């Protein structure tokens, strides 16, 4: 059976890692308490994406932390990742589910309350509440949900949810207090001077 913990979800971005290797950021983050890792590299050749995926899969295996691939079903299959994250403009979820199989984790971003309601009918494993706050890390987003929106989505969602966008030490506890099952972050860990300490501090906010 697939089991996963959305509590503290690291989404990678090498451009925001202050020149440090991706493996360093990911391993330090996991040592600090990250429970899921998503390989999200937008400016990457297929070969490089595949090679990064293989390396992260090997790195994460001893920690039993799932590796999720962003956008690219082919890469998720090729590296035998634990799952795939898709958005509303990516491959249809039915196609992803059919090709991934039932044992892999499939995450879907929801950008509106209507999409959150619709997601209850879908054979997916979790939803990303997208975005909670505006963030310079990703600017092609819908209007932010805000804390009230997280509360509203959490109250109707059948699937576990993870909140993403602009989350850091100053607001993580408030996001969790709305009923979110976890937080997903890029810069709060990848751009931290000490990614392990940053993950530990965020984990404390998540677990209370
Ligand atoms: C956990 C999580 N939630 C939301 C997203 C955003 O996905 P998407 O809308 O497909 O946008 P891109 O990340 O592909 O730019 C995510 N990646 N992870
Ligand atoms: C990858 C991603 N997806 C988002 C969404 O709203 O769907 S926001 C985002 C980037 C989040 O970065 P940071 O933690 O640095 O704000
Ligand atoms: Mg996407």
UniProtKB/TrEMBL annotation:
**Pathway the protein acts in:** Cofactor biosynthesis; thiamine diphosphate biosynthesis; thiamine phosphate from 4-amino-2-methyl-5-diphosphomethylpyrimidine and 4-methyl-5-(2-phosphoethyl)-thiazole: step 1/1
Residues binding 2-[(2R,5Z)-2-carboxy-4-methylthiazol-5(2H)-ylidene]ethyl phosphate: 135-137, 166, 186-187
What are the GO MF terms of this UniProt record? magnesium ion binding; thiamine-phosphate diphosphorylase activity
- Cite the EC number: 2.5.1.3
Give the UniProt keywords, A-Z.
Magnesium, Metal-binding, Thiamine biosynthesis, Transferase
| Ligand binding (Mg(2+)) | 71, 90
Q: Does the keyword Magnesium apply?
A: yes
Cofactor binding note: Binds 1 Mg(2+) ion per subunit.
Q: Which SUPFAM superfamilies match?
A: Thiamin phosphate synthase
> Its GO CC terms?
cytoplasm
- All copies of the Thiamine phosphate synthase/TenI domain together span 8-189
This protein's cofactor list reads:
Mg(2+)
| UniProt KW Transferase keyword | yes
- Residues annotated as binding 4-amino-2-methyl-5-(diphosphooxymethyl)pyrimidine: 38-42, 70, 109, 138
The UniProt catalytic activity note for this protein reads: 2-(2-carboxy-4-methylthiazol-5-yl)ethyl phosphate + 4-amino-2-methyl-5-(diphosphooxymethyl)pyrimidine + 2 H(+) = thiamine phosphate + CO2 + diphosphate; 4-methyl-5-(2-phosphooxyethyl)-thiazole + 4-amino-2-methyl-5-(diphosphooxymethyl)pyrimidine + H(+) = thiamine phosphate + diphosphate; 2-[(2R,5Z)-2-carboxy-4-methylthiazol-5(2H)-ylidene]ethyl phosphate + 4-amino-2-methyl-5-(diphosphooxymethyl)pyrimidine + 2 H(+) = thiamine phosphate + CO2 + diphosphate
One annotated GO biological process:
thiamine biosynthetic process
What protein family is recorded?
Belongs to the thiamine-phosphate synthase family.
What NCBIfam families does this protein's entry cite?
Answer: thiE
Give the protein's function: Condenses 4-methyl-5-(beta-hydroxyethyl)thiazole monophosphate (THZ-P) and 2-methyl-4-amino-5-hydroxymethyl pyrimidine pyrophosphate (HMP-PP) to form thiamine monophosphate (TMP).
Name of the featured protein: Thiamine-phosphate synthase
Q: Which organism is it from?
A: Mariniphaga anaerophila
Instruction: Give the organism's phylogenetic lineage.
Output: Bacteria, Pseudomonadati, Bacteroidota, Bacteroidia, Marinilabiliales
